[in-house]
Design a protein that fits this description.
Chain lengths: ~525, ~375
């Protein structure tokens, strides 16, 4: 068997050398899951030293294709050539030995261990006696070379998200990766961190590394990538398209979605009503007992969207947790529709018509091991019509309601008995958003509502949020995506180190002004400077 | 609808897969022990084991009898596990239930049966529940790990039994042997069918299983327990009281075990002795719950299986040269295999991952185009 492969590969090698300095070629790769086709006859050719974008909506088959390459899945059909040789990759270990490294969207790090311990974890080049100091030296030299300095002795839980990502990249480089797969690397980053990542990518390609950049964010692809392969419904919609030949993001979006798309969210002028949420001089500590919120005051009226911009970790999480009763405030006042709601239990606050789209849907917003209907009744399971007298749940009503909700909010699922964990990320988010909006809240708190979603799902969820505003809900929108905040909000406040740096009306908002506030520079200071 | 039915069937088959693999593998490994320790062939030994357990009405009767306490202790473990708590204290809760039942049983000799028997059963339930409440409170108030506290409480329970049968409830009339007086007729649980040994405890066990199912899957209280067990973050996000859920689950868990202990005394053993708990009911219950995947039907089936093993062992020892201890080896292996199935999962991880990923939205997109 293996001899036959070798014979074939010898022939192929000649061809490939003629073809040029390509590093990876995937030919007619198909992957079926039972009757479901995730990839069909996919071709992907990656040239050494380039940044190759793999673009597609959620569920288009990007991850499946990369998992085939990384040895996590065996392809149903097709061939993979790496550096001109036909390879059959059966495990990630084998992929790593070949020089393929992957940075997953959800980092594969152990928070309690130090950076260097994470780097050498499972590394086959370790000696019998682990010499962490020597490893740390190599690691530090390498991290300086690529311009991503990280203290090797710092514990991972102390690193920011951006640093953790750099650590993942360095981990792959430590294993001599030449081809790096970055799976949606910007999904968890702030604008500044994205810029840093792009610098790192440029540095990497300068050093001769090759990058496969998985994304559905068009602007990023236009900025950083050399060529682009677009997947749609598991098939190739465009192969190896040079990015410089692409006129604008709309053209890419059309290739990805298969139809014309409008990238802007339509929104009429807000008609604010009475005050729904009043926050006065609120301060709070985070879970490490450090000051996370300092004297924060603002109000939101019915029918308006207040955006909260800021670099991640500047008090947004704590603000939302104080408002929803998940952590106590040390000082201040919160009133919802005039009722005092400071330091009340989550249940009491929910009673006042508050809906909360949490920042981490998988950790907080849903129960992956429960089915859809059990997730849909999560917030109101203890009242009519979800449950009746005697504390019995009314499953037949919940079933019917769940089916309606899934079709209304476009949650694609085989049925309401499906486990929520089996849905794609976009559908999970639609499930959470649908459940929260369906309660017709007076106050909607939406945190990163479109994090990790593709264009279609993002636009859909954003327009539903605007619809909620038009219905008369007060909306608190927390997002680190500046475009999202600027598009949707009627007013924007900027949080920096737990304080409000300024309030900007939508018409006055531009990236520059917001960027300065996000960096902690107040308006007058900026003007003075 | 058709889809959900077929998923149900595949899920059912998939759930059966590991337990069956575990049992078959344990029996195979157990046969090595038989070969090594006796002159009997494993086939003969297992045949007499099976005949002893399920070979006829009389044998099946005895198997049912032995299964009853295991079903209760398995429910105890499963109820706590559904709320994310590892209850290793069914052993102690079972004993305290037996103690409380015995105390009420022997203390009111003049009550009529319709009062005395229910009171005795309630005392058994409450005794276990109280003993389950202690680790729950320690956990929610002080963060003490229930793994440690429940194990430690097992020893306390044993010492309490020892104290009581040597002192307050010692049967002074009969002898100086450390045991309680016999349970009077008014507090005894009778036989279900005349001529057979199986008693009304079987009905109570099945009712307990029914309660377990209805409570967890049909009521809002049970729903809370399951949400907290699967994702406490989502629980507090939805406004649930995590601490109260944990306490509730441990009250039920302890209560199940306590009821089982009480029934074992008032229906089978007839009086409380130091040797009443020679069979480690609590720990076998953990095995039953694990093998039955904390599923109501699974617990009943696994309970019958372990009852059968326990029962058939004697027959095997009598008929062949194989020791009845082989059964303990087989039981231990079953636990290892079931507990170790995560290991199987890791190794076959990618295949399982494929199955769970088999319903991506692509499927829905393409359904129209493709067929």
């Amino acid at each position: 068997m293996s001899e036959m492969n070798q014979e074939v590969s010898v022939n192929e090698v000649k061809e490939d050398r003629v073809a040029g300095k390509e590093i990876l070629r995937m030919v007619n790769v198909s992957k079926h899951f039972a009757q479901v086709v995730a990839n069909k006859d996919v071709n992907l050719t990656v040239v050494e030293g380039e940044v190759h974008a793999l673009l597609g909506e959620n569920g288009a088959g990007k991850s499946t294709l990369m998992n085939v390459l990384y040895g996590l899945y065996a392809p149903s059909a097709g061939e993979v050539y790496y550096k001109g040789e036909k390879v059959e990759i059966h495990s990630p270990g084998q992929a790593i030995n070949l020089g393929i490294g992957m940075v997953h969207q959800h980092f594969m790090l152990i928070p309690a261990l130090s950076a260097i311990e994470n780097v050498v974890l499972g590394y086959e080049g370790n000696g019998t006696v682990l010499d962490l100091k020597a490893a740390a030296k190599t690691f530090s030299d390498m991290s300086k070379q690529y311009g991503m300095a990280i203290d090797p002795w710092m514990r991972v839980e102390q690193l920011s998200v951006g640093q953790q990502q750099r650590l993942e990249i360095l981990k792959a480089l430590y294993r001599d990766a030449e081809l790096l797969i970055l799976d949606e690397p910007t999904a968890v980053l702030t604008p500044q961190e994205v810029e840093n990542l792009f610098d790192i990518i440029r540095q990497l390609t300068k050093e001769g590394k090759t990058i496969i950049f998985i994304s559905h964010k068009l602007n990023e692809i236009m900025t950083i990538c050399d060529r682009c392969t677009v997947l749609r419904n598991g098939r190739v919609a465009a192969e190896g398209l040079p990015v410089k030949d692409i006129k604008n993001a709309n053209q890419l979006a059309e290739l990805m979605v298969g139809q014309t798309v409008n990238l802007k969210t339509d929104k009429s002028v807000a008609k604010p009503g009475e005050v729904v949420l009043q926050v006065k001089n609120v301060s709070a500590l985070n879970d490490r007992k450090l000051q996370a919120l300092n004297d924060v005051s603002f109000e939101i009226r019915a029918g308006e969207i207040l955006g909260v911009a800021g670099v991640d970790g500047n008090g947004q999480s704590e603000l939302v947790k104080v408002l929803t009763g998940l952590i106590p405030a040390s000082e201040g006042q919160v009133r919802i529709s005039g009722v005092d709601c400071i330091n009340k239990s989550p249940k009491q606050i929910l009673e006042h018509g508050v809906s909360h789209i949490p920042e981490d849907r998988q950790k907080m917003g849903m129960i992956a091991a429960m089915n859809l209907r059990e997730n849909i009744c999560l917030m109101e399971y203890d009242r009519m019509p979800y449950s009746g007298k005697g504390g019995l749940l009314r499953w037949s009503w919940i079933d019917e309601h769940s089916r309606e909700l899934c079709s209304k909010y476009q949650v694609r699922t085989p049925g309401v008995q499906e486990l929520a964990g089996n849905l794609s990320g976009g559908n999970q988010q639609k499930l959470v958003v649908g459940r929260e909006l369906d309660r017709e809240p007076k106050l909607l708190i939406a945190v990163h509502p479109s994090r990790g979603l593709d264009i279609g799902a993002t636009k859909y969820i954003q327009s539903r949020i605007v619809e909620e505003r038009d219905r008369g809900a007060a909306v608190l929108l927390v997002s680190t995506e500046l475009d999202e905040v600027m598009d949707l909000s009627d007013r924007i406040i900027v949080l920096y180190e737990g304080e409000i740096m300024g309030t900007i009306e939508q018409k006055d908002a531009d990236r520059n002004a917001l960027g300065l506030l996000m960096a902690g520079i107040k308006n007058n200071e900026a003007q003075a400077g | 609808m058709k889809h959900s039915l077929s998923t149900k069937v595949t899920n059912f088959v998939r759930n059966l897969y590991y337990p069956i693999v575990a049992i078959v593998a344990s029996l195979l490994l157990g046969s090595l022990v038989i070969i090594a320790t006796s002159t009997t062939s494993p086939i003969d030994a297992y045949r007499s084991l099976f005949v002893g357990a399920f070979g006829g009405l009389r044998q099946f009767d005895e198997t049912l009898l032995k299964a009853i306490p295991f079903i209760f202790t398995a429910l105890s473990f499963a109820m706590a596990k559904r709320c994310g708590i590892i209850n290793l204290g069914a052993e102690g809760q079972f004993a305290i239930g037996a103690l409380m039942g015995t105390i009420v049983g022997v203390s009111f000799p003049n009550l009529p049966l319709y009062l005395h028997l229910p009171l005795t059963l309630i005392a058994g339930f409450l005794g276990g529940a109280l003993f389950g409440l202690i680790p729950a409170v320690l956990k929610v108030q002080f963060g003490a790990s229930e793994l440690i506290t429940t194990i430690m409480l097992n020893y306390i329970a044993k010492e309490l039994i020892s104290y009581f049968v040597n002192g307050p409830i010692m049967d002074s009339a009969s002898s100086s042997y450390p045991q309680s007086a016999p349970i009077p007729e008014t507090a005894r649980l009778g036989r279900l069918i005349p001529g057979m040994r199986v008693h009304w405890g079987l009905v109570l066990a099945l009712l307990a299983v029914l309660f377990y199912y209805v409570y967890l899957w049909k009521t809002k209280g049970g729903y809370e327990l399951r949400v907290v067990g699967l994702n406490p973050h989502a629980g507090s996000y939805a406004g649930m009281n995590i601490k109260r859920s944990i306490i509730r689950s441990m009250i039920f868990a302890g209560g199940f075990a306590g009821l089982g202990g009480c029934i074992e005394i008032i229906a089978v053993q007839g009086r409380l002795m130091m040797t009443s708990f020679a069979v480690s009911y609590g720990f076998t219950g953990i095995a039953v719950a694990l093998l039955g995947s904390n599923n109501p039907v699974g617990i009943v089936v696994a309970g019958l299986l372990f009852g059968g093993l326990q029962n058939g062992a004697l027959k095997m020892q009598a008929m062949t040269t194989a020791s009845s201890s082989v059964v303990l080896v087989v039981q231990a292996l079953v636990i290892l295999f079931v507990a170790g199935r995560l290991m199987f999962r890791l190794r076959t991880g990618r295949y399982l991952k494929q199955r769970t990923l088999a319903i991506p939205p692509v499927a829905m997109d393409e359904r129209g185009e493709q067929r």
